[in-house]
Amino acid sequence: QAFHIESPPIEVPFGQLGGTSLNAILALTLIRQQICTNIDILLLFSNPSIRQLAQAIEPLLIVNESQDTIITSKQDDETHILSLPSPLIESVGIILLICQWVLPIMIIINQCQPFLFFILPIFHLMLYVICSRLFSFKNNKPDNIFSWNYYRWWFLDRLWNNNRFWLQHIIGTPLYNNYLRLCGADVSLDAHIYSTTMDAPWLLDIDDGSWIADQTVFNCLHFNNDNNTFQLYPIRIASNCSIGTRTILYDGVNIENNVIVQPMSSVNGFVASQTIIDGDDDKSSSTNTLMTYNNRSLSIWHKIFQVIALCLLICVHSILLIIIYKVYSVVQVPLPINIALCWTLWSILGCFISVLLLKFIVGSCTAGETYQVASWSYLHKLWLRQLIVSSFHHAWLLLNSYDHIYPIVLRWLGAHIEDNVKIGEIHTFLSYPTNLLHFERGVTTFGSV
After folding, report:
1. Are 104 and 120 in contact (CB under 8 A)?
2. End-to-end alpha-carbon separation of the chain, Å?
3. pLDDT tens, position by position, 59-114
4. For residue range 155-174, what is the model confidence (pLDDT) as tens digits?
5. Average pLDDT along the chain
6. Angle between helix 174-182 and 300-330 (nearest 10)
7. CATH for 87-293, options being 1.20.120, 2.160.10, 3.40.190, 1.10.287
8. How far apart are CA 41 and CA 57, in angstroms?
9. Residues with Cβ < 8 Å from 193, sequence gap 6 or more?
10. Domain map of the chain by residue range?
């Protein structure tokens, strides 16, 4: 290549091939770039033929490979040491998470004031706000796994998951949007957010009129398996977008205006405006489709209705807690048995009350009927239903999967269910109008359907 000869003889010296000092320097440069870096001009002149030069370079290549192997092994050892988890930090974090739940409950029980239980969710939610202000970070740079920054995210993520039961009561309301803003998110008060599955709430940016369906996953954490590092990416959703249920947003998302994401899709990166994403495919949307985004903002009366519904539901839980506390204080049995008895009683009463509320307060829906997002019908028939079901979700855990009571309850709520139907979980079917369900003979549904 340096001497511009396609097939040079390997025994002939370079000088006999018509080479000059410039050709030698060019050959030396190419050898350093492509074959061996630690070669000098003396080695080239002392081995003037191709065969001699190859025999002289070969030992140098073996030495370089051994040195590279040693350096690589040292780097792997250092990376392995850096990527080891810290049992001490994790143990302290777990103890703090347990204390966050147990200590307030113990204080309330010792004070013999059951009404203090209503301070419990406020304490838990505000504790996360304080911790997120102290530990959250927006530095979008790679960092080693199990580093201090990683454990900051790790603790906040576990703390958020502990509070998801309380957050289920305020999703779809301005209260939830305000809470996300307290946690550092840039969320519009007119956005409709029905998901609590997120690992870094402070990195969310959601504009006016966007709809985020339930069980949407906001995955800001990205783990790089090649070098054991992680990054936190922001997620931005512009105005008037619709994100379908069980959609996964990951590895940095920037969605522009008027985008429709169909249920169970996965989205990452940039999404142009007026796009429909169905699974992994995307296409431009039509003008007729975008016209359905008008008037998504709730009026002040709608918001007052949501607050009143929350207050009434709190009153229902208050009566339940008073009854359970009376039983707890009257029954003279060992503490573990007393706790199990109170839990069983609360679960039975909770299931009974939730079914009554769904039957006589929420009622049924007409097949094919359209509900505007900002309407009384939607708030009454869908939002209130999901609020009741999520509030009493843990009460239904008393029953086993495929319990024979599930079809009976759904039939009483208006569902058409034939014989030999087995239902894994009833929570999903209660969350949507049960009178629209039609199960024929022998149907079996598994969990998370």
Report:
1. yes
2. 65
3. 777 666 655 555 555 555 544 445 688 899 999 999 999 998 888 878 877 776 66
4. 999 999 999 989 999 999 99
5. 85
6. 80
7. 2.160.10
8. 12
9. 171, 172, 176, 177, 180, 187, 206, 212
10. 14-82, 87-293, 300-445
Name residue, tokens 């007119």. 190
Tokens of 18: 């018509």
Whether 419 and 439 have beta carbons less than 8 Å apart is answered as no
Give whole-number Cα distances, 55 to 13, 24, 43, 62, 157, in Å. Answer: 14, 18, 11, 12, 60
**Residue 120: exposed, middle, or buried by beta-carbon count in 10 A (0-12, 13-18, 19+)?**
middle
CA 40 to chain centre: 56
Beta strands in 225-300 (DSSP E): 229-232, 235-237, 242-243, 248-255, 260-261, 266-271, 275-278, 281-284
The pLDDT-based confidence of 287 (bands split at 50, 70, 90) is very low
Tell me which H or E stretch contains 282: strand 281-284
| 155: DSSP letter | H
pLDDT tens readout for residues 398-412? 888 888 999 999 999
In degrees rounded to 5, what are phi and psi of residue 10? -85, -10
Question: How far apart (Å, rounded) are the C-alpha atoms in residues 112 and 292?
Answer: 53
pLDDT value of residue 138: 77
Q: Which tokens in the block code for residue 324?
A: 């359970």
